[in-house]
Amino acid sequence: MSGASMDSGPVTVTGPRAVASPVPARPVPVNRSRRAPQSRRPGSRVGYVVKSVLLWAFAMLFLLPFVWMLSSSLKRNLDVFAIPVRWIPSPVEWKNYVEVWTGGAVTMAVFFANSLTVSLIGVVGDLTTSAMAGYAFARLTFRGRDKVFLLYVATAIVPMQLLLIPRFMFFQQLGLYNTLWALILPGIFTVFGTFLVRQAFLAVPAELGEAARIDGAGEWRVFSRVYLPQIRPTLAALAIISFVGSWNDYEGPLIMLSDQNLYTVPLGLTRFVDADGGLSAGLAMAGSVSSVIPILIIFLVFQRQFVAALATSGLK
Prior knowledge:
61% of the residues lie in helices and 0% in strands.
């Protein structure tokens, strides 16, 4: 085959000795996922800016009363209701907080201790009873389960104000009137908590419990080790709701307590109103600002779980 020219095309030989044609090179794949970032369109960018400004405006509108309360807590009584409003107090009255926390025989420290006792014990009790009752109504099978749950939920339509007088008489006969237990015990059993936890248990796949039972786990182990860890966000959300409701309760302590040493924070704030209806506005605002701090701490601690519970509450 002398004189054969070397070219790039395929060569075919019909003799006993065949020459393989060269294999064409494969095209290099193009990574289409790495594209240059496209700039936001002018119209969408303007819409994004407008939405952000509106959301910030609404946020500041809702925060305005709290800013006024914080500013008023550092003012004299004469300057609290001055018009126009002076947002920056002058002079700054730090002594309002000193008077609230240290002045007098009964101070905010006593009210805080009582409120924390009632709220924390109530939260632990509410989480315990709601988790056990919710699991029973969701995953246990017994006769009349759905009817009992329906009757239990139906009790939520009764206004709480209608139960204050019967509750007062009941605790008075038990000798629990004018004690913190008269505030703790009603908060341990809540219809809302049972309903919320039951819905969370229903969202957990039943196959998890069945697999644990096949492996020999008892019912309590299935409840505590399998199902309960799956609803931690819901329990965190319930803890926040229960704590805030117990901390802000005013009607219960007003009916059940008569000793100032047992007053909770909402009832203790009425101490800044004298018998003639006069209000020590600066002291009252300082006490109100102090009362918000535990709620903010609880929310910041359980914020992620609370948001996760809200995000997954509609998924099933």
